[in-house]
Amino acid sequence: MYAQMVESTASDDDPEKLAAFQARIDAGEKIEPKDWMPEGYRKTLIRQIGQHAHSEIVGQLPEGNWITRAPTLERKAILLAKVQDEAGHGLYLYCAAETLGVSRDEMTEMLLEGRMKYSSIFNYPTVTWADIGAIGWLVDGAAIMNQVPLQRTSYGPYSRAMIRICKEESFHMRQGFDIMMKMANGSREQKRMAQDALNRFWYPSLMMFGPSDGDSVHSSQSMAWKIKISSNDELRQKFVDQTVPQADYLDLKIPDPELKWNQDKGGYDFSEPDWSEFHAVLKGNGPCNSDRMKARIRAWEDGRWVRDGLMAHAQKKAAGKVAAE
Amino acid sequence: MTAGGDEFEFLCRMGDNALVLGQRLSEWCGSAPALEEDIALANTALDLLGQAKMWLDLAAEVEDAGRTSDDLAMKRDVMDFRNLLLVERPNGDFGHTMTRQFLFDSWHVEMLKELADSKDARIAEISAKSAKEARYHVERSAETVIGLGDGTPESHSRMQTALNELWSYVGEMFHDDEVDMSMARSKLAPLPSNLRSGFDRRFRKVVEAATLIPPTGAYAHLGGKNGIRHTEHLGHILTQMQWLQRAYPESEW
Questions:
Q1: What is the ipTM of this complex?
Q2: What pTM, to 2 d.p., does this model score?
């Protein structure tokens, strides 16, 4: 779940068309690229799918940070496969966004110029091997929470991308939990790393769902369009309720003194994350924002000669073919 | 000579080539020129890592000294590594990485093709499986060398530089030493020198299509596959790769 605070754009389209469009969505029909859609629907989706795609790409960096240091051949292979899956998710999502009339290169430029965002979570560093476990367990766990309902989203290409992605995400979460189990049941030092990773990733994971929707106009429009299926608070509650027993099983302590079971609501009470930190991260002041963007800009700029070279070769080949015909 | 003798040495060579090159390729994670290239590099690294595990599992079995493939990967020092010098060379730019890959793949496919007929059924089995992957790798690396060699003036010049710089690491792949000769006598592996003509055929074709000038120098750096003199780079690769196992010995991961 890598879309946070996606602004929805209001539409000033013909009211009759809008009503017919809304009726299709209410009837559970999928909207396909060639169908008429309100401009606001299209723009909001581009922002949301683009943000999700960028998150997959930037999200390779904190995990990639440990591929060359993974402790065993098997762990290295699993992590490499996982990061490769994420690049693949980025690819499906960019393709889904392209059906809305924006190219991957345009979206990349917007990311690199800071005009599009990626999830706040990837601005936190992975400092020990246990962080790779924590990312799988908590970050992918939170992602699944949001992505499962999005399989039912109204836009066909997005919904189909989410169905493919969800299949792989549950494998990612399991591998993360498996690392945590080994660490939590390992040596004193390993257990310390596991607890430390949970301490650092707990609140940033809760932030992944975004602030409370409250009376947000954006959220209600997105929900009416079935671009957003559940509220941020619902998803966050579900995540906490799922994760607390897992932490107990690992014998790790969630860093929240206020955490307790609430019989009446049938869920846990828990502390809100520090939203000023969240806003600071979104503004570019997270621990890794500048490193992440630098890495992406460097990859894009260093790769320019390669993209140009391959393009020039393809054009020569195509010209040769035409000349031969 | 260690337990397992020449066969152990040979298996470490195959395993270490795949391991070290896989490690090098995974350094690219998240920084390739395009998303498709990122995926392809990770895919190749993953194939190589899987191959490394198969070879080193067999090496450990042949050695029969209670070590595992992870012990071999994570607990040997530079002087016990048996990979070619070529694969431990730094990545350089994308063109350099893909040129190194093409040179290695062009040897690797020939080697694996022959090894699929090894008298040791375990070697034959690993080779048959790896050969399928290597054929795909060489197809892709050759295409990239052609595309960039015959691309823009800048990409052409970068590819020519990469080829010139890496050329002196090609000879080691075809150099026969005592281990190779012993393996060939036992019909366990081909003589590396016999693989050269197959390599040359592909190399000439690709380099010509890439509009590159084939280097002519005959000098070959040696010392990787016999472990006598690795480059300074291998120690840094191992420092990173082996760090957790070395810092927290006796831990399970």
A1: 0.95
A2: 0.95
